[in-house]
Amino acid sequence: MLSRNGLHTICEEALCPNISECSKKREASFLILGKVCTRGCTFCNVEKGVPLPADPAEPEKIALAVSELGLKHAVITSPTRDDLPDGGAEIFAQTISAIRKILPGTAIEVLVPDFRGDTHPLDTVCHAMPDLFGHNIETVPRLYGIRKGADFKRSLSIFSYISSNYPSIPLKSGLMLGLGETASEVVSVMRDLYAAGCRYLSLGQYLAPGKNFYPVREYIAPETFAEYKKDGMKTGFLHIESAPFVRSSYMASEYLKT
To answer: DSSP secondary-structure letter at 171?
Structure first.
């Protein structure tokens, strides 16, 4: 169905280890705005380079795909599109509206890039009222060199801006572990996110997509993931998925049940 409609998923492009499980459950995270990213992050398998122009028909295609699959919870994400004046925000908004028109009962989660710190694209997406707004902080400030073109404070400010201006929209983030971070750094980032208004969180083990990517520095024990979840829930998070194979869209439909 994806091939027939010329659509992409982050599940395929990022080599997610859960793709078979999620496909069996009819869960998918659509990758809009093409499959080429304008940034060169050293941990991500998504293709880097010069993207094709945005497809104005894509929102309708995504909505029809969500309908064909009968999804009750749809996740919409994209590569970073620094080449577009609004970073692709209008296509995000149009996709939300297109899904709502066909399937008003489907929950819609977005996972957006940082839009270079511009709040206007955030307004564009938020005006479309997604059921869950996500932006992955990815790692601790000390290791932000792996996020080419990104800035920890800029990413954190997204949560502060939305929680202040759109308090009814729930906020979600995610971190990869095993990059060389310390336990105290992880806890500090979780508390920073909570203070900025984030209430939903995913924690998973970083797995290098290939030998030329940033190397895994440590394999985190499942017990440690459980401890991070315990600490985060004590902090006040409403739902946390924390385990080695967890990715930001894994068990996506469970978050809003809490």
So the answer is: E
Rounded to a whole number of angstroms, the CA Rg of the chain reads 17
User: Which residues, in sequence order, are CB contacts of 11 under 8 Å at separation 6+?
Assistant: 18, 19, 22, 23, 28, 29, 249
CA–CA separation, 247 and 94 (whole Å):
25
Contacts (Cβ under 8 Å, ≥6 apart) of 97: 59, 128
DSSP notation for 51-120:
PPPP-TTHHHHHHHHHHHHT-SEEEEE----TTSTTTTHHHHHHHHHHHHHH-TTSEEEEE---GGG-HH
pTM summary value: 0.93
CA separation for the pair 41, 184 (Å, rounded): 24
Segment 100-141, tens digit of pLDDT:
999 999 999 999 999 999 999 999 999 999 999 999 999 999
The Cα-based distances of 215 to 11, 18, 45, 103 in angstroms read: 21, 21, 13, 42
Q: Where are the domains of the chain?
A: 8-257
Query: What is the Cα–Cα distance from 143 to 139, expressed in whole angstroms?
Result: 7
Q: Indicate the pLDDT class of residue 12, thresholds 50, 70 and 90.
A: low
Residue 14 binned pLDDT confidence (cut-offs 50, 70, 90): low
User: Which of 133, 131, 7 is closest to 65 using CA atoms?
Assistant: 7
- For 8-257, the fitting CATH number among 3.40.190.10, 3.30.870.10, 3.30.2310.20, 3.20.20.70 is 3.20.20.70
- Residue range 169-187, pLDDT digits in tens: 999 999 999 999 999 999 9
CA–CA separation, 131 and 66 (whole Å): 15
